[in-house]
Write a structure and sequence with these properties.
Number of helices: 5
Structural class: alpha+beta
Strand content: 5-15%
Number of domains: 2
Shape: elongated
Number of strands: 4
Bound molecules: flavin-adenine dinucleotide
Largest sheet: 2 strands, antiparallel
Order of helices and strands: EEHHEEHHH
Length: 140
C-alpha cells in the first residue's frame, strides 16, 4: 500500500507499506532501475507526480510498524505515559488517535474525581485506560 500524507508546505510525504524480505519486498528493490520498474508496474499513476522518486526511495529510511503494549504507565506518581507512548497501534486499525483522546477524557474525569491528587489519579488512570486502550490482537 502506498499512502501520501499532506505537509504544511503543500508537499506530500509518501509511505510504502511493504514486507522487508521475500519475493515482493524492499530487499528485492535494491537498484534504482528495479525500484522504478516496481512503481511503474504497481503504482503507474504516481510516477508523474514523483519526479525525484528514484532518489527519494533510496535516500529515505525504511522503518518498522509496531504495536506497543506496556505496563505500568506511571512512575512514582510523578511521571506518566499517555497516548502512543503507552499504547501505539499500527495505523491500519485507525484507532491510535481515538485511544489518545480517550486517555484525555479518562484523565480529565479522574483529575476531577480525585481533586488533583496525583497519587490517586495515576494508579487509577493506568488501570482504567489500559483496559480501554488495549488494541485488537495482531501478529507480526
Ligand atoms: C500513517 C498513520 C495513519 C494513522 N491513522 C489513524 C487514523 O486513521 N485514526 C486514528 O485514530 N489514529 C491514526 N493514527 C495514529 C495517530 O496518528 C496516533 O495514535 C496519534 O498521533 C498519537 O498521538 P500522541 O499525541 O500520543 O503521539 P504523537 O502524535 O506521536 O505526538 C508525540 C509528540 O512528541 C514529540 N516528541 C517526541 N520526542 C520528544 C522529545 N524528546 N521532546 C519533545 N517532544 C518530543 C513528537 O515530535 C510529537 O510531536 C495513524 C498513524 C499513522 C502513522
Amino acid at each position: 500500500m502506498l499512502i501520501a500524507l499532506p505537509n504544511m508546505d503543500g508537499s506530500f510525504t509518501c509511505t510504502l507499506f511493504f514486507p522487508f524480505k521475500g519475493e515482493h519486498s524492499f530487499e528485492k528493490l535494491d537498484t534504482k532501475e528495479k525500484a522504478t520498474n516496481f512503481f511503474k508496474e504497481i503504482f503507474p499513476d504516481v510516477i508523474p507526480l514523483m519526479p525525484t522518486l528514484e532518489n527519494d526511495f533510496f535516500d529515505n529510511p525504511t522503518g518498522s510498524l509496531m504495536t506497543v503494549r506496556c505496563f505500568p504507565w506511571s512512575w512514582n506518581n510523578q511521571l506518566m505515559l499517555i497516548g502512543d507512548a503507552a499504547h501505539a497501534i499500527v495505523p491500519f486499525y485507525g484507532q491510535g488517535m481515538n485511544c489518545g483522546f480517550e486517555d484525555c477524557v479518562e484523565l480529565n474525569d479522574l483529575i476531577n474525581k480525585f481533586d488533583h491528587n496525583w497519587s490517586e489519579i495515576m494508579p487509577a488512570f493506568e488501570k482504567v485506560a489500559n483496559l480501554t486502550a488495549m488494541p485488537l490482537p495482531i501478529w507480526h
